[in-house]
Automatic annotation (TrEMBL):
One of its GO terms (biological process) is L-serine biosynthetic process. PROSITE patterns: ACT, D_2_HYDROXYACID_DH_1, D_2_HYDROXYACID_DH_2, D_2_HYDROXYACID_DH_3. This is D-3-phosphoglycerate dehydrogenase. It is an enzyme of class 1 (oxidoreductase). Keywords: Amino-acid biosynthesis, Chloroplast, NAD, Oxidoreductase, Plastid, Serine biosynthesis, Transit peptide. Belongs to the D-isomer specific 2-hydroxyacid dehydrogenase family. InterPro entries: ACT-like_dom_sf, ACT_dom, Ado_hCys_hydrolase_NAD-bd, ASB_dom_sf, D-isomer_2_OHA_DH_cat_dom, D-isomer_DH_CS, D-isomer_DH_CS1, D-isomer_DH_NAD-bd. Pathway: Amino-acid biosynthesis; L-serine biosynthesis; L-serine from 3-phospho-D-glycerate: step 1/3. It comes from the Eukaryota. GO terms for cellular component: chloroplast stroma. It comes from Quillaja saponaria. SUPFAM superfamilies: ACT-like, Formate/glycerate dehydrogenase catalytic domain-like, NAD(P)-binding Rossmann-fold domains, Serine metabolism enzymes domain. Its main location: plastid. CDD domains: ACT_3PGDH-xct, PGDH_4.
Amino acid sequence: MATSASQTLRTPSLKNPSLSLSSKPFLSSAFSVSIRSRQNRGSRPLLVVVSAGLDAKPTILVAEKLGDAGIELLKDFANVDCSYNLSPEELCTKISLCDALIVRSGTKVSREVFESSSGRLKVVGRAGVGIDNVDLAAATEHGCLVVNAPTANTVAAAEHGIALLAAMARNVAQADASVKSGKWQRNKYVGVSLVGKTLAVMGFGKVGTEVARRAKGLGMHVIAHDPYAPADRARAIGVELVSFDEAISTADFISLHMPLTPSTTKILNDENFAKMKKGVRIVNVARGGVIDEEALVKALDAGIVAQAALDVFTVEPPPKDSKLVQHERVTVTPHLGASTVEAQEGVAIEIAEAVVGALKGELAATAVNAPMVPAEVLTELKPYVVLAEKLGRLAVQLVAGGSGVKSIKVTYASARAPDDLDTRLLRAMITKGLIEPISSVFVNLVNADFTAKQRGIRITEERITLDGSPESPLDFIQVQIANVESRFASAISESGEITVEGRVKDGVPHLTKVGSFEVDVSLEGSIILCRQVDQPGMIGRVGSLLGQENVNVSFMSVGRIAPRKQAVMAIGVDEQPKKETLKKIGDIPAIEEFVFLKL
């Protein structure tokens, strides 16, 4: 039982302030070594000197063209080797002499590169946003921090979105091609006006916000959908936050600015095109994969979509015979969103500052992979780390569309003294679970607090001190989201917040509370939550429906207020049920509401 009221949690400071969580101090080129094992199993490792010199500066390899301003920043701190168009073999040969590597999208930083560095490579900088060309798992395994430059191209991407919006509305590209072919077809290329039209901005992050500002200046009515965008920030520039379905069904123009994640892949598909207003026009300067390109061609041919303007594609470059690219009502550009002189210089400066800061041992706000964590800490907290992330994922999926997630409260119950439990990793994993499902940001111990703050999310921590043995680090973790509506009303606790709580049992994370209802379900696979009238046979009816569709049930638990009153049934499933199956569950008379949650 609790011996004291909850108290504000204070994170213990690092015992050695000279050490950083983001990187280890670089081994200068004055004396660098690597340890390689002999091929015979069981033999002692062989110490090999890689390089020896008199210069104590680190060495940075720039493998692709970088703006002059960025190069000058690097040269003030390090030896800079600008070697472009390296083959994979040449890169692997050079990398063992380098402390940092800077690339754009054309250089593959594979596992072989990290292995060839023999432990010397401390930082990889990606001059841009995407990190698809960097093997993050290998980087983390080799203790190498990966940083990117996510902000410098914001205005350029927004401007390109507006340029495509206007060019599409007035048939600029088609009319240009027509005139150059010797034709003069004024009647064929009559356009539509932007003023007074409704623009739906799908994804209200940095670029989406800048597009909205510019569209307002053109006299457009702007709405937006983004589950993380604070409503007050949207209102400040005259934008209304709405649900996904409302956005796509009421818009005259749709501008996509969402990241490519499992939940957004092909989010504009046959089903969602059918919900749109006939004659809608679509702009995409985000990621190609968020649109089902075959479905878009069908929607264009059917007249549902009047026009599209695309800067990005699922495969780049797209096939020459692509029906989408060749469609007469589609305007295309070759991924030019960030291609301005100013943006390229800005990216160069941003990535140079990030790489130099990381080499100095400073915490990197733009880090995209997890830093090294002491093995003994990670071993003890491992199941709680999994629990923390899954609670975050569950909580955010319970938020109704259009609600801005701003205030999170995390409560830890433990018998340990405050100084014996550092919760930074747990807080980072909760943040990861909250943000990553609908974002392209990679959240880790280094950037978690920065990422949450950047999105207007305030996370407070409290702890309840329990009696008993401190052998286990935690008794339970509770996550609450305040001031939002819920997709599952029963997840709202008596105090008014979406509430989920979990424990680790026999090394396995369990969901033990939803709202005010006690449940017990293993956090494996996915979960169906049902609020029902408590009566005999409910478990059997739902289980039978799932069994008929070959959906395996791993756990099932019922929490109730009192016999024959309301109850919440939590069902763990290994596979995602079909929509038809979920509808059948919802049609059971005694079931008042239900929700399917992916883990």
